[in-house]
Amino acid sequence: MLLIRSSWTAPTALAALLLLTPACGDSGTTETPAPDQPAAPSAEEAPSPTADAGTKIDFAAASSRGKTAMFVPAPSEFQIALAASEVTTSLKDRLGEDGSLDGKSKPVMALETGRRIANVLLASKDGTKEAVTARMKSARAGLQALGAGDEVLSETDKLIADYEAGTIGNTELPPAMDILNQKIQKALASGAGEEITTLVQAGGWVQGVHLLSSVLAEGGGSKEAPALVHQPTVLAHFTEFIKQSSAAKAGDEDVVVVITELDAMSEIAKKDTLGPEDLKAVATHTGNIIARF
Amino acid sequence: MTRTPLFAVLSALAFGLVGLVAPNTAQADPAKAETCLDELVSAAVIGNGNRLRAKDSDAAADKEEVVYRVTLYRGMTYLLLGCADGEGVDLDLSLFDDTGALVDKDASPDAQPFVSVEPAKTGEYLLRVMVHKATAKTDFAVAVAYKN
What we know:
The complex is a heterodimer of chains A (293) and B (148).
Chain A: H1 9-20, H2 59-64, H3 75-84, H4 106-123, H5 129-145, H6 150-165, H7 173-191, H8 194-216, H9 232-243, H10 246-249, H11 253-269, H12 276-291
Chain B: H1 3-20, H2 30-45, E1 51-60, E2 65-72, E3 78-84, E4 90-96, E5 102-106, E6 114-117, E7 123-132, E8 138-146
Antiparallel strand pairs in B: 1-8, 2-7, 3-6, 3-8, 4-5, 4-7
């Protein structure tokens, strides 16, 4: 019984975990249900190439070959993480006006579209119907400009229509947007290409960091709150990617400015911790990037 | 007080999911792995008001691994979950912090592992997905979700 974990146990325990598990403290681990966990790996399980249970891996080596498909936090995570850091400011009240798509290169349109999608994700939980609908339509325009396929545009239209009609409300919209966002990423990757997809992701991340740094620069929150902005590995990921992009190699004026600002942020990110002036500087740099959209 | 009926509903959904991944030793079926994961996400994540960050699919042979970089925030609760395409396959998940230390793992001998974690600090972590008991290259799908 202890060592046999039937196939239905995982989803059932998963459901129980999500429903019943309270906060688990700062241990960084969660106790999984004892009956489901074998005391040790079975005889068939050979040692991992990177580590046995309980031993350390070579983090730098493993990270260097790690996939980044799930690396970057979703914009909506920023709001929840902010609340967890004892800051009650609502990011949706600071989203700002959309940038323009007119006359912009495709990479810059991708960054702006990512920002617009981030704005939808941040506004969808408690924004007014009028404001959220406008944000959704704005993001849809960005997707269309990037050449997103008819299928994902139709799904976007349906979600907008359902929201406008009240078929789904502000409670159902955020998770529905999460699912749609995954489809958008997949559709863009197969249509517009991986470069555009990553730039869309970068645009959302820049918007999130801009909002977070702006709020945190005003003070307040726990002493760990600045760490929400201090993400040197994510910054390096996007900076290197954009530097290698076709737009950078072509000398796109806007992308060159974006790289300059990201490099300036990289200098700040070298610090062990960020102070109020660093947070203000990050807000300025990200603001300068967004101004190019 | 509402947990019991909610649990029953989700358990029923989870039980229904078993039908989709019922005993089948066929492997190399990415659509099946993704469908399995989508059902898990739909029933236990989205259906429960939680949020999905991202998902991905890949393939690995027996005793091979795929590593994902994930940024996690302190103060939040994350759920890392996966599905392999064959019921006979054992898919394991392990999470390591930036010192390389093991944070948590699900090494149970099944095809649908999950790890729930409240990170002790904000930063980069590594999620290792490892395939066991596979007779051929096995497709799998993984996701990062978080509590709302």
